[in-house]
């Protein structure tokens, strides 16, 4: 392992020098769809954060506050300072009370330090109703791993990318005797973010909610956010369809209540949404016929969930040619076997006798 980077003597740096150093490890912009993007390659410590609070709030955070979702990119963040953890978590913590997010054990001093969110932040917290996605890679390490894990355990962020390195929060370089050999050892470790006891990311890394190669993680994150922006409209259209068409009228109020109170925080794909909707709606209605399906365009789908088309005009005579007969049947009937060995038969018109 490489030795940890030695921080310069911060007391000797001017504000301009601190800001210049910060620019090397921080990038922010607003992407298409009003998605905020914040890339952090190094987590500054408390001393730097305290000195730069006003600058960060005015020049970085204020520009991201108006976005509808946020991507926190930690793919290139290989370390940082433990004391900087509360500053990152606090701006994304939606609650009004302080939260105990981790306890750190330090071996040289044989002491533990509790990490809490800040009582207040300069500016505003990021809205609780806004989605946050954290990007990770196989290089994401140390303090960045702790931040990703805490946000995941808080259910405040969707982690997208690769399993992180599973490194250590803090490393120390020790000389072996009087030789020219050195040993780099972990000297601090997390005892379990959010009071989870022995559960920790060290050694095993942080497992993403959605696994994808690191170089594709941002594209995947934006696709997830596009889906999540559409969720309120999907739920509203489902409610309208149940009011208008569902024949078991007495069960409609319970179904509408269920839809209005569904927890969709874990939905990251169309498949997730369909599974969650069908499980909930069928349980509430006790009706296995109540089924939500994904409707795809003709170019990208070939199953029973194809987009509905206008039914063909019925022919007056059954053709003699075998191929023409098959084509006629295929234009009227759709037959397949769904997961769970469920037969599916669809026909849109009845033929005459």
TrEMBL record:
GO BP annotations, alphabetical order: proteolysis
InterPro entries reported for this sequence: ClpP/crotonase-like_dom_sf, Tail-specific_protease
Record PANTHER family: INTERPHOTORECEPTOR RETINOID-BINDING PROTEIN, RETINOL-BINDING PROTEIN 3
Name of the featured protein: Interphotoreceptor retinoid-binding protein
Molecular function terms, GO-annotated: retinol binding; serine-type peptidase activity
Gene3D superfamilies assigned: 2-enoyl-CoA Hydratase, Chain A, domain 1 (3.90.226.10), 3.30.750.44
Domain of life: Eukaryota
GO cellular component: cone matrix sheath
Segments forming domain Tail specific protease: 14-213
Organism: Hyperoodon ampullatus
Encoding gene (name): IRBP
Region named Disordered: 297-321
Record key words, sorted: Receptor
